[in-house]
Write a sequence for this structure.
C-alpha cells in the first residue's frame, strides 16, 4: 500500500490517502485536494457575498440615518423661522443696561507667596568637642594622654571645617533657589498688577460708556438710542443663516420715534426643504421640498413675526422710555425678473408705539392679524416682494440727490428748502405734486396761496380704484408737526368730500400724529419723504432745520 498526506491550510483539514499503487494513491490525493479547493472557493464566495450584503445593509442603514438627521435639520430650520416671535418674546428683555455695569472687583487672586526653603543652622566649633577615652597606659603616661587629646582636637577641627564647607554650599544652593522663587513671584505679581490695571481700565471705560449712554437715554439722545438698539440686536436669538443682519437707524429726538431700516432676506433664500428620504432603487438620498405655497407662507409669517418682535424686544430693554414709537421698515434687495437688474425695495412697514405694543400678548397672537391690526403696510403676499411706501423713510443714500432738472428755476441746486419762504415752499409743493399726479393722467388744481391753514392744492387722480379727489397741505416747519394740523387736514378732507388727504412737511410727525392717522385716509410725508419725491422728479435739495432756525424763519407753513 502507498499513502500520501493531504493538508489544506485554509480549511484546516488533514487526511492520509492510500492506494494499491503509488499512482492510485497520488490520484486520490489530487482528487481530495481538488475537492477541498472547490469547497474553499465556495465558502470564500459565500463569505464574500455575505460580506457584500452586510456592507450594503450597513451602507443603507447609514444613508437612512443620514437622511433622518438631515430631515431633522431641515425641520429645525423651518421651525426657527416660524418660532422667531415666541423665541424673542421669551428671551426679552435680551439686554438690561442697568445690569451691565461692572461693580465687582478684579476676580483673579493675588499670586500666593512662594514657600521658601529654610536655611540650615550654621555649624559651631564647640559642636565638635572631642572627649577621648583613656586606657591604663594613657593614665600612667602624660605624653600618651596629651597626644590623644591633640589628635582628637585636630580631628574635630577637620570635621568642623568639612561640615562648615558643606553648610556653605547648601546655603548657597538654597539661596539661589529662593532667589529664583522670589524673582518668579515678583514677575507673577507684576503681570497680575498689569492684568488688574488693564481690567480696571476696561471696566471703567465700559462703565463710563454705559453711564454716558444711560444718561443719554434719559435725555432722549439719538446716539444713545442707536447704541441701545445695537446692543439689543446683538443679543436677539435670530437665525443668522437667513438674515443679512444689516440695518440703518434714524432717531427723531423731537418725536421720540426710532426708524429702523432692516435688510430682509430674499424669498429665494427661504428654507424650502421638507426633509430627505432614502431611495432604495438608487441607493441614495433625495431631497423632499415643500410646495411653493408652504414656502411662501413660511416667508410671510417670518417677516410678520420679525416686524413685531424687533420693536417689542427694543421696548422691553428701553427702561428709560427714550423711544415712544418705532417705525420698522423691511427692505429687500433682489433680482427683478422683468428687468434682470438688482432692485432694492421696502416690502413691509410698521409704526408701533411702546404703550400699544407692550400691552399685546405676542405669545398668543397670529402675527399677520396683529400686524394688520397695528395698521402695518405690506402686500397681501409679502413673498411677491411688492414695494410699499415706508411710513417714515430714512434716506438710504445721501441727503443730496442727483438732479436731472430743476422744478423751480429760481431755486438753486442743493437749496435748503426748510429755509425758503413759505409762499415759495407752497409753490414748490404744488409743482411737485403736479408732476407726481400728471404722470398718471391726473390733474392738479392749486388754490390761492394763503396762510390760513386751508387747502394748498387739490389733485384729481383718474385711477378707478385708488383715485379720486385728494387734498394736499404743505407745512414748512422746523419743529415737529403738531397733531392738531393732522386733525385739521382730516376735517378738510371730510369738508371737501375728498377720498384722501396728504400733509407734507420739512420736519417730522410725532407719535400722536401717526396714531391719529391710523385707519384714516391720510398720508403723512415728512422731510425724508419730501426729499425722495423731489429727487424722483429731478430736483436736488436738502433739509437743514438748524440752519433754518438760525436764519430766523418763523414756525409757519
Amino acid at each position: 500500500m502507498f499513502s500520501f498526506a493531504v493538508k489544506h491550510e485554509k480549511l484546516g483539514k488533514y487526511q492520509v490517502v492510500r492506494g494499491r499503487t503509488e499512482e492510485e494513491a497520488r490520484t486520490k490525493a489530487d482528487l481530495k485536494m481538488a475537492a477541498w479547493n472547490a469547497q474553499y472557493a465556495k465558502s470564500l464566495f459565500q463569505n464574500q457575498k455575505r460580506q457584500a450584503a452586510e456592507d450594503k445593509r450597513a451602507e443603507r442603514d447609514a444613508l437612512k440615518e443620514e437622511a433622518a438627521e438631515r430631515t431633522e435639520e431641515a425641520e429645525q430650520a423651518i421651525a426657527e423661522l416660524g418660532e422667531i416671535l415666541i423665541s424673542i418674546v421669551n428671551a426679552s428683555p435680551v439686554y438690561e443696561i442697568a445690569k451691565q455695569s461692572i461693580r465687582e472687583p478684579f476676580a483673579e487672586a493675588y499670586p500666593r507667596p512662594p514657600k521658601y526653603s529654610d536655611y540650615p543652622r550654621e555649624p559651631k566649633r564647640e559642636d565638635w568637642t572631642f572627649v577621648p577615652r583613656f586606657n591604663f597606659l594613657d593614665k600612667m603616661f602624660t605624653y600618651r594622654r596629651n597626644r590623644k587629646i591633640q589628635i582628637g582636637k585636630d580631628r574635630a577641627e577637620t570635621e568642623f571645617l568639612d561640615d562648615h564647607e558643606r553648610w556653605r554650599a547648601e546655603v548657597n544652593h538654597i539661596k539661589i533657589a529662593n532667589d529664583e522663587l522670589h524673582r518668579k513671584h515678583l514677575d507673577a505679581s507684576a503681570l497680575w498688577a498689569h492684568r488688574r490695571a488693564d481690567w480696571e481700565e476696561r471696566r471703567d471705560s465700559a462703565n463710563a460708556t454705559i453711564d454716558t449712554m444711560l444718561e443719554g437715554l434719559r435725555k432722549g439722545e439719538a446716539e444713545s438710542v442707536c447704541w441701545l438698539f445695537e446692543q439689543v440686536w446683538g443679543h436677539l436669538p435670530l437665525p443668522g443663516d437667513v438674515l443679512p443682519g444689516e440695518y440703518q437707524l434714524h432717531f427723531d429726538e423731537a418725536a421720540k420715534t426710532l426708524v429702523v431700516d432692516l435688510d430682509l432676506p430674499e424669498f429665494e433664500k427661504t428654507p424650502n426643504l421638507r426633509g430627505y428620504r432614502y431611495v432604495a432603487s438608487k441607493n441614495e438620498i433625495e431631497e423632499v421640498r415643500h410646495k411653493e405655497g408652504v414656502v411662501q407662507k413660511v416667508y410671510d409669517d417670518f417677516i410678520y413675526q420679525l416686524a413685531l418682535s424687533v420693536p417689542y424686544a427694543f421696548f422691553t430693554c428701553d427702561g428709560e422710555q427714550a423711544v415712544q414709537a418705532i417705525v420698522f421698515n423691511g427692505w429687500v434687495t433682489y433680482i427683478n425678473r422683468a428687468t434682470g437688474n438688482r432692485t432694492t425695495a421696502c416690502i413691509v412697514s410698521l409704526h408701533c408705539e411702546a404703550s400699544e405694543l407692550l400691552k399685546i400678548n405676542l405669545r398668543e397672537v397670529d402675527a399677520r392679524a396683529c400686524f394688520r391690526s397695528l395698521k402695518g403696510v405690506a402686500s397681501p403676499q409679502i413673498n411677491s416682494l411688492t414695494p410699499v411706501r415706508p411710513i417714515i423713510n430714512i434716506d438710504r443714500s445721501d441727503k443730496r440727490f442727483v438732479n436731472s432738472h430743476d422744478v423751480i428755476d429760481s431755486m438753486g441746486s442743493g437749496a435748503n428748502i426748510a429755509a425758503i419762504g413759505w409762499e415759495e415752499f407752497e409753490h414748490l409743493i404744488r409743482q411737485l405734486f403736479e408732476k407726481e399726479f400728471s404722470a398718471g393722467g391726473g390733474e392738479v388744481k392749486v388754490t390761492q396761496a394763503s396762510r390760513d391753514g386751508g387747502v394748498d392744492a387739490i389733485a384729481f387722480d383718474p385711477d378707478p380704484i385708488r383715485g379720486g379727489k385728494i387734498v394736499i397741505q404743505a407745512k414748512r416747519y422746523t419743529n415737529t408737526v403738531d397733531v392738531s394740523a393732522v386733525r385739521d387736514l382730516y376735517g378738510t378732507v371730510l369738508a371737501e368730500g375728498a377720498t384722501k388727504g396728504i400733509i407734507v412737511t420739512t420736519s417730522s410727525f410725532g407719535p400722536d400724529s401717526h396714531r391719529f392717522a391710523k385707519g384714516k385716509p391720510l398720508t403723512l410725508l415728512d422731510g425724508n419723504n419730501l426729499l425722495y419725491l423731489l429727487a424722483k422728479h429731478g430736483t436736488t435739495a436738502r433739509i437743514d432745520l438748524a440752519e433754518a432756525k438760525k436764519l430766523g424763519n418763523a414756525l409757519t407753513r
